[in-house]
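2024-03-11 09:14:02 INFO queue: dequeued item Hydroxyneurosporene methyltransferase, len=334
2024-03-11 09:14:02 INFO validating residues
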Amino acid sequence: MPHSDDLLWGAVGDISRFAALLTMAELGVADHLADGPLDSAELARRCGAHAPSLRRVLRELASLDVVRSAGPDMYDLTERGTALRSDVPDSIRSSIRMLGEEGFWYAMGALPATVRDGSSAFIKRHGHLYDHLAANPATSKMFDDYMTARAIPFTENLAKRYTFPENATMVDVAGGKGHILATVLHANPSMRGILLDLDHVTGRARETLAAEGLADRSEVVSGDFFAGVPAGADVYLLASVLHNWDDDDALRILRNVRQAMDPSGRVLVLEVALPDDEAPHLGKDIDLRMLAIFNGGAERTREEFAALFAQADLALSDIVELGSGSSLLEARPR
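2024-03-11 09:14:37 INFO prediction written
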């Protein structure tokens, strides 16, 4: 067991390491090194950066094994660093850029102010996240890419580990670019899908579903889940939705779904369910982001989800672990 001071000082150092990764992601360093090593001056020229400053960041990046020395003042990309290229399937470049986006970066730095008065400092400066995204198309696209990359591990397991009903129609509530719906429809050829999201998102969802060859088995609808959701479907998926809202708003969403669904239907809530112990867990990290960015947004335990379901006339019927800290909670009408 490492000494506690080592853990604390390691956390202090993490901000510098993340800043180095953010610089690498923003400048496209991995893309520029994809074809082989470059000296720092040439790399800086291609990145549009100040060479002496970039050299100092490269030194830190080498300590993280994302780049390595390939000779005097020469750097090459490592296998680990390949994940920061923008053209690889499992790229985390967009994820790093989103977490370092001005508003997100401010939100985490202002967490003490949020905790002091219980109101998000991010919202005070930038407004609600989704209004912020709607007003900033480049940030909105980056956010969609981040959510897609983050969802890849548990989306694949959702299709593999959960048995969807035959010939079902599924509504993906706040389905974003449509990556989850596309994965489910590919794995279940008899199913049809409806994706509901805000107007500024739906264009990208149509593009995704068309590119996946699913335009004839899917429909994209613009709308607000607080106003209502498409009625009469067999399955309603809420993936990383409820954790953005406090209990009152989460309950409004669930009640709208309960009102719209068939009596034999089911609700699938894909979230990071918090454990009851004090061990490190991804959900605890994400919970602080929810605290920083939303007023009332939070990760929840299984018991807290079950209580929400009960208030919406639903009952927790199954839990499927999807890996990467994520769980699929199935609820059915009581």
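2024-03-11 09:14:37 INFO annotate: The chain is about 50% helix and 15% strand.
2024-03-11 09:14:38 INFO item closed
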